[in-house]
Write a structure and sequence with these properties.
Elements: E1 2-6, E2 10-15, H1 34-41, E3 48-49, E4 58-64, H2 67-78, E5 83-91, E6 97-101, E7 126-137, E8 147-156, H3 163-170, H4 184-194, E9 201-209, E10 216-220, H5 225-233
Parallel strand pairs: 4-9
Antiparallel strand pairs: 1-2, 2-4, 3-4, 5-8, 5-9, 6-7, 7-8, 9-10
Length: about 240
Amino acid sequence: MEILYRDDYLIAINKPSGLLVHKSMIDRHEIYYAMKLLRDQLGGQWVYPVHRLDKPTSGVLLFALESETARLLSEQFKEHSIKKEYIAVVRGYTEEKGKIVHALKEKLDKISDKKARKDKDAQEAVTDYERLAVVELDYAVGRYEKTRYSLVKLLPQTGRKHQLRRHMKHISHHILGDTKYGRGEHNKFIRSRYSMNRLLLHCNALEIVHPYTEEALRFEAGYDEVFMMILNEFGWRDKV
């Protein structure tokens, strides 16, 4: 696991795409997950996840090294004082900048949330975005003769489950490689043309206030070879 930052209280890593944060009943046969791999890497040091990234999402993932630190960091997440920054590749040309305000119903897992209430009201969800670059390809996908994609920076102001993936679907700019909320014809295209088999969503930065020193910290995570390949293919390497 690539360690981005470590002190006596917390540790930040660059989580690979396809890796669970912790053991889950949803993937009960999965034996590899970030908590266990990191714990083994640290010689058995227990780690406490203070937020989550979806299994197919890569990027900055923060853990506490003790329970009180985990509690203090969790409070920052609940108060939305932590800043998260994502990079994504989406279908179509987005607006240059925008704010998505679209409430989301809580997503429940059939197994782990089977006893949870299913009649809750939709929760407030807000995402700001900024277009960084665009590309037009001479390939027909769906009913269009050419294919357009945008490179976007996503800044979630709330932390709902699958928020970014659902919000980009809501404005019809689905994230490439999203098998749950994306567009199948575009996922098929990038798989066949670029051998791209991952969700093109990456948490490239996370900003917190250290719970004890009160120092402002910013953790940044680089892109894996697969994500970097698509950035190179689309001429976007200098845009991120």
